[in-house]
């Protein structure tokens, strides 16, 4: 029997807000389109501070080379328990990168304070904390509420649903937790600490963008690539 492969979710606020509601994130938070990284007037609709970014990026050769260099020599991720700085999931379900990206946004940093008590999201978070990497991945793999929530969202969005493996693009979450910028993706060797952020620097601040999303964009530019096309949404408190 092969591993589970789901239909890939689209990265837009409608989809992720429905997923959030299904799993039990308070409606006091919402995802918003990020239309620009550089033009303040195109970010003015997003309440600040922004708590997390969820980005889908093309898997370019330059980014692949950088990822391989970063991950080379790393052993299995050992983080677990209440002192783990962020909760990270290894992805073992095909095409679940969007819903796992949502989890990384919702269960880390200040967003976790908005999880409804005794909700499916609350249970996933509590169950994950004491588990090591493989056991945590297995817990999520076998979570029926997580699967049902994902599948309830696949018909939303602007593109036709497909269960074909999407090797050409990756979902990445950027989260501010404990004064650090974290890059979280289930196909890496673990969470990536991208550096310190000040109390007044949220996930859309120039420093956070430079340490995070713009870093990937620069990799492509320095390799002589064309403009990097990506989709980005931000999780924030409703105004």
Report how far apart the termini are: 47 Å
Instruction: Name the beta content range.
Output: 15-25%
Number of helices: 8
Average pLDDT works out at 93
Backbone shape = globular
Can you tell me the residue ranges where pLDDT is under 50 for at least 5 consecutive residues?
none
What is the number of strand segments? Answer: 6
- Helix share bin: 25-40%
Class from helix and strand fractions: alpha+beta
Largest sheet: 6 strands, antiparallel
Rg result: 17 Å
The secondary-structure element order is: HEEHHHHHEEEHHE
Strand order of the largest sheet: 1-6-2-3-4-5
Give a nutshell description of this structure.
Helix content is 31%, strand content 17%. By secondary structure, it is α+β, with helices and mostly antiparallel strands. The protein has a six-stranded antiparallel sheet, covered by helices on one side.
Would you give an account of this structure?
This protein is an alpha+beta fold. 31% of the residues lie in helices and 17% in strands. The model has no long low-confidence stretch (mean pLDDT 93).
